[in-house]
Amino acid sequence: MADLRDTGARFEIDEQGETSYADYHLEGDRLYVDYVFSPPALRGSGASGRLMTALSQDARTKGRTITPICGYAAAWLKRSAEFGDLVA
């Protein structure tokens, strides 16, 4: 899996020379996922799901909950047996 970068406002993962990202903001220990994006070349490849997995693992490690603002993030977390418990 590609390495997750955290810019302080965006999580990023590079694959095949392209960058998928999730814009976010923090309020205390709550991570708000505002927007998830994968470039057209990566759509349908699971890139956004890999990004969500990585950011969810990061949130769990740091003791954070996740509030999805983005529709994709909300749907992904709802389907996730592993990370659905992080939703707050």
Main traits of this protein?
88 residues; five-stranded mixed sheet; globular
Shape: globular
- Coarse structural class: alpha+beta
Quick one: how many beta strands? Answer: 5
> How are the strands of the biggest sheet laid out side by side?
1-2-3-4-5
Low-confidence stretches: none
Provide the residue-averaged pLDDT.
96
Structure description:
The chain has helices spanning 47-61, 71-79, and strands at residues 5-6, 10-15, 18-27, 30-37, 65-68. A 5-stranded mixed β-sheet has the order 1-2-3-4-5. It is an alpha+beta fold and 88 residues long. The longest helix has 15 residues, at 47-61.
Describe the structure in brief:
With 88 residues, the chain is of the alpha+beta class. The protein contains 2 helices and 5 strands; from the N terminus they run ββββαβα. Helix 1 (47-61) links the parallel strand 4 and strand 5 (65-68).
